[in-house]
Structures are given as structure tokens and as C-alpha cells.
User: Fold this.
Amino acid sequence: MKDRTALIVGAANDIGGAISVKFAGRGARLVLIDSDQQKLEKVFAKVAAAGAKAECIAVDWANSAAVTSAVDTIVKKYGALDILVNAIDQRDGVPITEGTVETWERSLKENITPLVSFSLNVIPVMRNQKYGRIVNIGSLEYLGTPKQANYSAAKSAIFGLTRSFALELAKDGITVNQILKGDVKTAECPLSPEEEEKGAAQLPVQRLGKPEDIAYAAAYLASGLSGYVTGQNLIVCGGKSIYSSMSA
Assistant:
């Protein structure tokens, strides 16, 4: 990954931030993107402290023109764009009785549209290079879970998108993979000590995941070592996927 240019979308959340710091330690040139400037600057400070070459760009990713402009600026500055990590995650699931068409539309728009927008802008650059790594951060909820059908539907869409992109881009030297995160403790989903203890007890590994657990997996899939791995969905869940019915 050394001297590769990596674009981290959703860098301001805990998982995106952990991935950014991990990539910094591997020598990547980082471009950190998020819609929240203040949170983004906090992650930038950590990356800069690790000695990485980095910059941060606040982007309204609902604005396709803003996304295109940001990618164009990055390519002109660095001459390449080797790695794209889509780490956006809007956990907005609601029970069926509380759901509306607007709820569903918002979930799809916030979880899928930015991922597609950045991918479609980055893929032509990677094709010209004959090299690229795209890593999507998804969720185990793609399997379908109660009281958040809209969120599960959005995450399930990433599953199909990842495999389709991988098939279409393999001949261009571009790999596309997804990490399906399990129960990860983050600031975006705060838990009381009691809730954390209960959640950990339900997992085979007896602990909740950490953002760094996802970052380790992302570092592999974004590296030059993973060239023979594409269209895969790596589940990082502490064993939940082989143990839980997901129905509770």
C-alpha cells in the first residue's frame, strides 16, 4: 500500500477513522472525505500524527456534481487514485409499523447513493491505470433483521453491487470486495456497560467488535496482496453469523 493514493469516504465515523489510521501506518497517501468538517478534522489530526501524507475534503455526497469535482481534484493533484473505501453507514432502521415510503427512500439514498456516486467517478480512473482496489463496508444486517427492514434492504443492495462490480471490473485489474461488520462498538451506536456486557455474552468470541477489527480486514483487501480476491464478502463478526439466527 506504500505510496498508493487512497480515498476514504466516510472517514469521520469511527470505522472510517480507524481505517484511515491503519492505512496511514502502511504508507498510503490519504484523502479523507466526509460531510462533517469538524469530525473530519479530528481524524485528519490522528492521521497527520502518524506521519502520513493526507488531506481532508468536506463533500456533500448527495450532490453528484460535488462528488465528481472532488474526484477530479484528487486525480489532478496526485495523478492516480488506487484505493477507494466506501465507509458510509447510516443506521436508520425502523419497525414496519413506523416505516413510510420516505423512510425507505432516505435509507437507500443515504447508504447507497454516495457509494455508487464515488464508485462511478473513480472506476474510469482505475481502468486507465489497470489497477484498483474498492472496499465497501457493509453490515451483517444485509441478511435481514427485525425492526430495520429499510436498513437491511440498503445493506443487501451493497452485497449485489459488490459482486456485480467485481465481475465487470476483474479484467481491468480492479478488485471489488465488501466487509460485512457484525456488532461493533462505536460512538455512533453508544451502549451502556450493561448493554455492552449483554451483547458480548451473545457472541462466540465474548466481546463486541472494535473499529480496528474492521480496519485490519480493510487493509488486506486494499493492499497489493489481495489481487486474486474479488467479489467476496468478508464477514467480521466475532462468529455471530455462524451462531445467531438474527431473529431476536
User: Anything to note?
Assistant: Helices lie at 14-25, 37-49, 64-78, 101-111, 113-129, 149-169, 193-201, 211-221. The longest strand covers residues 132-139.
